């Protein structure tokens, strides 16, 4: 049985005898075991990170960027093997796995321009003979706690920016699919990063709490469910850390009567069912405006679902694969039953799906509900599986209110040909990321990712300039150089009073 260990300098520290199973979701079989760390192991990693951080921060940003450039090249050279490794532990199909890696790589590309982004501000003559300038400096040691659904993208969102600005970084990935994060750290070291700049520790809640409490860690970035995000944010802030914690979602797709229905349905198939719905930016709620639009949308969706192919992660014809674990499969199927019990119309039932030859795999067939109402818990909560719900709206205003009033506010999309309606919707909807005829509006790497309400806790978004701000602190210097006159010839005047 393959054993997945931590990637830290100086061995495994105190270590523990605890391990966790890593499954192949397509077969349902255990393919590896991963060591789970404890506080003593984290102490070892933090001590190393603290020791190497000053020299890394003192390395000029252009040289740090060269490491990122080389890392980008290595990722591209190893794309296929990384995607296969990712798919074997997560279950997403190879194309989705490559997309996972590519979206993380785009943040690495953005960070290659870190010398420009770290330039400060300068004011000459802020007072008599006085100049003022500011600089951004790293925080010290940063940490990232990342989810199972994007084991390449989200770690790179975090550590690329944190390390580029001069921090060292400790990554705690999901124990469900830990191999790709380890491989990323190995490639980062191969790219020229000093030993200890990026380390990986594995663990469960015990390790999460150790990270949140550790006095040597200055900042923590987290992505996961909203309840855990709130816990991470509260505990981390109470320990004096800077924290950003991204939570869950229930993203809506508003379909106006004038929408291009063929394109809309095609987009919904990918956005609702791609990666088995295990995405915080999936579109699990379709909101057609008007009964005629709703009936047409439902018919088109049912027809399109009949063509969806569910398969193992290595099947090039499969549009999505299994969910990550048997426990998660049961959770999704339980939510489907909850929807039935609450009175929603189950149009297509994906429960009990079996793939010939892979009967033990963690597969859930595509499911569709119609006539879902806002009082149903299956609507209010995140299902995180291949389940699409239709919530009918009588008007644009009613459709606008649905995502705006929902407890989550991660992403939303509107499908329409009407520019005024799209502009009005984008301006008024109470959600952090908006797509106009774009089903999954994840911003490009030089903008930033972040939701509202219970989808995000903290003041800064992920990556882009928001990421640079999160992983740095500002220092402002006010300076005056004597002109050679005798001391005391003139009194100092605060620049704002001069």
Could you explain how this protein is built, in words?
By secondary structure, the protein is an alpha/beta fold. It contains 16 helices and 21 strands. The protein has helices at 39-58, 61-77, 79-90, 94-111, 114-117, 153-164, 179-190, 205-213, 226-238, 261-273, 291-305, 326-341, 377-380, 396-405, 419-428, 464-470, and strands at residues 2-4, 19-24, 29-35, 122-127, 130-138, 141-145, 168-172, 198-200, 219-223, 242-246, 252-255, 285-288, 345-348, 367-370, 387-390, 408-409, 411-415, 433-436, 452-453, 456-457, 472-480. It has a 7-stranded mixed beta sheet with strand order 13-14-15-12-11-17-18, sandwiched between helices. Strands 8-7-6-9-10-20 form a 6-stranded mixed beta sheet, sandwiched between helices. A 3-stranded mixed beta sheet has the order 1-3-2, with helices on one face. Strand 7 (168-172), helix 7 and strand 8 form a beta-alpha-beta unit. Helix 2 packs antiparallel against helix 4 (94-111) and helix 3 (79-90) packs across helix 4 (94-111). The radius of gyration is 25 Å and the shape is globular.
């Amino acid at each position: 049985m393959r054993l997945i260990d931590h990637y830290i300098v100086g061995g495994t520290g105190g270590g523990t005898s605890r391990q966790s199973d890593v499954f192949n979701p397509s077969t349902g079989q255990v393919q590896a075991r991963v060591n789970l760390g404890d506080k003593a192991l984290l102490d070892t990693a933090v001590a190393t990170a603290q020791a190497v951080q000053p020299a890394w921060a003192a390395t000029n940003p252009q040289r740090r960027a060269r490491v990122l450039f080389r890392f980008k090249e290595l990722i591209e050279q190893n794309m296929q093997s990384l995607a296969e490794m990712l798919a074997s532990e997560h279950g997403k199909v190879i194309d989705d796995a490559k997309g996972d890696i590519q979206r993380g790589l785009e943040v690495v590309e953005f960070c290659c321009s870190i010398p420009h982004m770290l330039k400060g501000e300068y004011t000459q003559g802020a007072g008599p003979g006085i100049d003022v300038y500011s600089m951004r400096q790293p925080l010290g040691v940063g940490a990232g706690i990342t989810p199972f659904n994007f084991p390449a993208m989200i770690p790179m969102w975090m550590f690329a920016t944190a390390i580029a600005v001069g921090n060292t970084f400790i990554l705690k990935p999901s124990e469900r699919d830990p191999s790709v994060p380890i491989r990323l750290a190995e490639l980062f070291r191969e790219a020229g990063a000093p030993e200890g700049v990026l380390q990986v520790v594995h663990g469960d809640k015990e390790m999460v709490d150790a990270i949140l409490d550790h006095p040597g860690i200055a900042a923590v970035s987290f992505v996961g469910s909203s309840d855990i995000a709130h816990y991470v944010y509260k505990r981390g802030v109470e320990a004096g850390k800077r924290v950003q914690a991204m939570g869950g979602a229930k993203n809506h797709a508003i379909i106006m009567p004038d929408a291009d229905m063929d394109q809309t349905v095609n987009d919904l198939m990918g956005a609702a069912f791609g990666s088995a719905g295990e995405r915080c930016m999936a579109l699990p709620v379709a909101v057609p405006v008007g009964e005629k639009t709703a009936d047409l949308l439902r018919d088109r969706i049912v027809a399109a679902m009949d063509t969806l192919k569910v398969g193992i992660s290595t099947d090039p014809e499969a549009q999505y694969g299994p969910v990550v674990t048997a426990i998660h499969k049961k959770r999704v199927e339980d939510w489907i039953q909850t929807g039935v019990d609450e009175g929603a119309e189950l149009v297509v039932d994906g429960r009990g799906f079996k793939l010939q030859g892979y009967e033990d795999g963690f597969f859930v067939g595509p499911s569709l509900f119609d006539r879902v109402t806002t009082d149903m818990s299956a609507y209010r909560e995140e299902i995180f599986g291949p389940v699409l719900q239709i919530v009918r709206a009588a008007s644009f205003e009613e459709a606008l209110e649905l995502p705006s009033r929902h407890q989550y506010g991660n992403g939303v999309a509107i499908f329409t040909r009407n520019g005024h309606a799209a502009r009005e919707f984008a301006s008024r909807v109470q959600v952090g990321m908006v797509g106009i005829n774009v089903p999954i509006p994840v911003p490009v790497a030089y903008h930033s990712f972040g939701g509202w309400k219970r989808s995000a806790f903290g003041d800064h978004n992920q990556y882009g300039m928001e990421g640079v701000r999160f992983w740095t602190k500002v220092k402002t210097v006010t300076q005056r150089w004597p002109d050679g006159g005798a001391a005391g010839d003139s009194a100092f005047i605060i620049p704002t009073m001069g």
